[in-house]
Amino acid sequence: MEISTNSLKSKITRFFDKMDYIDRKLYGKRLQYFIIAFLICIYIGPEIDNFISTDGHQEVLFTGISNLLLFAFVFVSTFAWIGSWRDDDGNWTWERTKFKIHSYYESFNEAKRQYMNHAKYEKMYFAAKSIIMAALIMKSIVIVFQIIIFVIMPFGFSPDNSELFVLNLDNYWSVVLFTSLFLFLYIFSKDKSYKKRLFSDLLKIFNLKLITEIEKISINNSPNSISKYNYVYNMKDNLHLTEAKSIYKHHLIEKVLDVLNGWNPNSADKEYMYQDRLFKRLKKALPESNIQTEVPLELEYNGKGRADIVIDNLIMLELKRDATTGAIDRAKGQLEKYSNAWKSGPIFLVLFDFDYEKANDSFRNTMNDFMIKDKLVGTVLVRERKN
Predict the structure, then answer these.
(1) How many CA atoms lie within 13 A of 76 on its CB side?
(2) Rounded to the nearest 5°, which phi and psi values hold at 319?
């Protein structure tokens, strides 16, 4: 029985690891792929079938294939999200689950507070975007149910009832879609600047930018800029803060460093607790930025990793609180791998519960090597260990 249970756990772990691997390939383009797959399902697939259909015979081949592709996308995304609830060792724990639920609850409350503080048309614009996404999700649910009812589970539902159920959902999603379109038209009639705003948002979704932020980032590593502090910066020391800003010259980096300078977190037993707290702190301090956690990375030799926090797809923060020798060596190796994979901007190793002198001595050579290689990697200490 024990062997059977362990075998089942191993299979479940491999399944979620596989979903996670596929999901990593989609990172940064999930919404883009979702919209493309949605349009193929709704318009392109059916139109191709209509074009190749003959009198008395309606083709459904391309409609079916496009529906299956969207179903696969939703399937992978859903189980990859479930897998992200595992801890660093790949295990599900009640403690981790509670913290995840609390984090989502806090994020919802923060979004709600920001929404209530918006002006009238800003609220309407936010609502219109949310409603149109709800419409796309509802239609996707319809397609998923169609696959489940008619392909995966052909028995258990009578055709009449299942068709009526799907038809009702189809009607609802159409109403929701037209509601969002009406809101957009109303907003545009009152304030034409929102047309440019929507166009800009669409460009961001499809990664259509003429100039990327990374082109503006530079590091000042000339001999005159290097001081005894340039290996590890203590964020509670204003001299260190000034030094760090003079090295990493970018407005977003300066904002992030200011957030770390003004943040005084309470002690936490787990690394992910600091991660969730910092995520909420950044979301509040940088409301215009896109801040994500557990961002998948493709490493060399088919390796895999997840960045703790990523800001605007530009700045990576990797958090560590274990000051043991083994953990420090693993952190150095992780930084080397991540720096080879992350080409968007700087990586900051963010330390908690470290003695500053030990941190500076431990990471001195590593940070110096990164600087020689012109890699944007730095180390900052946010919470110093209390003796």
Answers:
(1) 19
(2) -95, 140
Q: Would you call 239 exposed, middle or buried from its count of C-beta atoms within 10 A (0-12, 13-18, 19+)? A: exposed
State how far Cα 375 lies from the chain centre: 23
State mean pLDDT over 117-138: 84
* The predicted structure's pLDDT at residue 349: 93
Contact 144, 76 (CB under 8 A): no
> How much helix, strand and coil, in percent to the nearest 5, is found in the chain?
65, 10, 20
Residue 243: φ, ψ to 5°: -60, -45
Mind giving me the DSSP string for 307-362?
A: EEEEETTTEEEEEE---SHHHHHHHHHHHHHHHHH--SS-EEEEEEEE-HHHHHHH
User: pTM of this prediction?
Assistant: 0.63
Q: Do residues 318 and 366 make contact, with C-beta atoms less than 8 angstroms apart?
A: no
- What is the structure's pLDDT at 228? 44
d(CA 107, CA 122): 19
- What's the DSSP call for residue 68? H
Asked if 352 and 319 count as a contact pair (C-beta separation under 8 A), the reply is yes
Rounded Cα distance, 219 and 375, in Å:
9
Q: Which residues pair with 233 in a beta bridge?
A: 380
Evaluate whether 187 touches 125 at the Cβ level (below 8 Å).
yes
List the structure tokens of 197: 């705003």
Q: In this predicted structure, what is the pLDDT of residue 317?
A: 94
Give 95's contacts (C-beta < 8 A, 6+ positions apart).
270
Phi-psi region of 302 (alpha: psi -120 to 50; beta: other; left: phi over 0): left
Task: Supply the mean pLDDT for the chain.
Answer: 78
Q: 69: closest CA among 40, 30, 46?
A: 40
| Residue appearing with tokens 């600047």 | 193
